[in-house]
Write a structure and sequence with these properties.
The complex is a heterodimer. By secondary structure, chain A is of the alpha/beta class. Chain A is built from eleven helices and 14 strands. Chain B is α/β, with parallel strands linked by helices. The chains are: A alpha/beta, B alpha/beta. The interface between A and B is medium-sized, with 25 and 24 residues.
Chain lengths: 334, 179
């Protein structure tokens, strides 16, 4: 498990450390580096696929300071740095010896499963798209491929698929089953069957919220989910009352032992702007990280590291307190 | 003096800074709070005021906190309320919440217990903004309206007048006051 990530001159993160647990919810205003912090893991996995311009802070483009991302895990630490000899617009350029260091670090990272990482930022239209039939379907960042993943789950893990159907019915009592259709040769799409009347509702006719929720639910029921998963603004398109279910799906990934699962825990990182979602974490303040931006750049701080946080919060609703601004993580001071 | 403000919008805070600096006769210094404090409704304010006072006291260098909340439809605060607090009066409500919270605060090294000032514009902060132009927009006029006198302006009129410079209801009332 990653315990913290330190960023230096990485885009908006000039000098910031993100503390992480098994589950971490990052709250903050727009432009406070939440997405950047998550995307750094993508860059760690494929450090040679990004240009200098894509990784360096705007204020550091013409300076001689290296860009660094350092990952500290439970048992080890890994640092990847990009040299200063690269020019804007070029692929990241490294001295020969540095190249081999990166390969070595990547090897270490693979051993520690850091390469098994996926960011999800769902788009309900993409979730509904039909997919080519394939034995190794994967869920894309935007949710495309859900039909293939569900189809695969039905074939390879029928019991799990049944449990998923039962849970779907608890989330959406009007539906009782996920079905499949072949809209054209070699393509597959999913449908939901209504409990009453047994009507088949095509994926594209389902509400945005239903499609999005089904994507979260499906990930949580996968037998082998990625080792590290990040969700960007899981509240997007979801009714506030359903947020507890979304939290439940994310917890199923992070704390499988509490859900009768035998698999390894997934390290989950989520970002949010929703006071309603934040309210659900009142009993788990150690999971909340607040992103703030000031004249020195972005800073991440665990809620529990704030002095007197327990006395300040007491019985107050956490989401509202955050909105008020006393915890930070809201638009900047005038 | 370092003062934090807990208000409903960035515009209100900007105006309150000028007002409070005028009352104190000194510049208002910026606190080290990470963000501006803001509430989104009176219910939100009521629920979160104790937490905000505690956070400003324990986690900032502010000497004082200024809280401003519209009276809306609550009874207007009068001198009788100073003797016995009135349950539905907005100012009395906020004062009670402030007093109860301040009693529970512990001293912080190098800092006195935070001072809290509560302001309740009647019926809304727009009346304060428009007062210089329309000096009838004060508590007594609103009490007359609450007592059933034919005064038609309301919170919406005040907002409209502030945005456009005029409002039919308010203009009619003002003509009547002048007459």
């Amino acid at each position: 498990m990653i315990e913290k990530i330190h960023y230096k001159n990485f885009k908006a993160l000039r000098d910031a450390t993100l503390p992480l647990g098994r589950f971490t919810l990052i709250v903050g205003a727009n432009g406070t580096g939440k997405t950047t912090a998550i995307n750094a893991l993508n860059i760690i996995i494929k450090p040679t696929s990004f240009s200098w311009k894509e990784i360096v802070s705007a204020s550091n483009v013409n300076k001689d300071e290296p860009v660094e991302i350092e990952i500290q895990a439970e048992t080890s630490s890994h640092k990847i740095a990009w040299g200063v000899d690269a020019k804007e617009g070029q692929e990241v350029n490294r001295p020969e010896d540095f190249n081999s260091q990166i390969r070595k670090k990547l090897h270490e990272i693979k051993i520690n499963n850091f390469n098994d990482f996926k960011v999800f930022s769902f788009d309900s239209d993409k979730i509904a798209e039909s997919v080519s039939v394939s034995p190794n379907s994967e869920l894309n960042k935007n949710g495309k491929g859900l039909a293939g993943v569900l189809d695969q789950l039905r074939d390879s893990e029928p019991e799990r698929f049944e449990e998923l159907n039962n849970e779907l019915n608890r989330w959406f009592p009007e539906y009782d089953r996920i079905l499949f259709d072949v809209p054209s040769e070699g393509k597959k799409t999913f449908l939901l069957r209504t409990l009453l009347g047994k009507y088949r509702i095509k994926a594209e006719d389902l509400s945005d919220g239903t499609r999005l929720a089904l994507a979260y639910l499906t990930i949580s029921y996968l037998p082998n989910p990625p080792k590290i998963v990040a969700f960007e603004e899981p509240e997007k398109g979801i009714h506030p009352r359903l947020l507890r279910k979304i939290q439940d799906a994310m917890y199923r990934l992070a704390y499988p032992e509490n859900y009768g699962e035998n698999r390894e825990p997934v390290q989950v990182i989520a970002t949010t702007h929703s006071p309603y979602l934040l309210d659900l974490y009142k009993e788990n303040p150690e999971e909340i990280v607040i992103a703030n931006k000031d004249e020195n750049g972005v800073h991440f701080e665990r809620l529990i590291d704030k002095p007197h946080y327990e006395e300040v919060l007491q019985d107050a609703p956490l989401g509202e307190i955050w909105y008020s601004g006393v915890l930070g993580g809201v638009p900047a001071q005038i | 003096m370092k003062i934090a403000f807990f208000s409903e919008s960035i515009a209100d805070e900007s105006a309150l800074r000028i007002l409070v600096a005028g009352i104190l006769g000194e510049e208002i210094e910026q606190t080290n709070l990470p963000n501006r404090l803001e509430y989104r409704s009176s219910t939100h304010l009521d629920r979160n005021l104790p937490a905000v006072i505690k956070a400003v006291h324990y986690n900032s260098d502010a000497d004082a906190l200024v809280v401003v909340s519209d009276s809306d439809d609550s009874p207007v605060h009068t001198s009788e309320h100073e003797e016995t607090s009135v349950e539905k009066c907005r100012l009395c409500q906020l004062r009670r919440a402030v007093e109860e919270t301040l009693l529970r605060l512990r001293p912080v090294a190098g800092k006195d217990i935070i001072k809290v000032a509560v302001g309740v514009p009647v019926p809304a902060i727009e009346a304060w903004y428009l007062f210089r132009r329309n000096p009838q927009l004060y508590e007594t006029t609103w009490i007359r309206k609450q007592n059933g006198e034919k005064i038609t302006y309301d919170r919406k009129s005040l907002r409209s007048c502030l945005k456009t410079g005029k409002d039919k209801k308010l203009d009619a009332d003002l003509r009547r006051f002048d007459g």
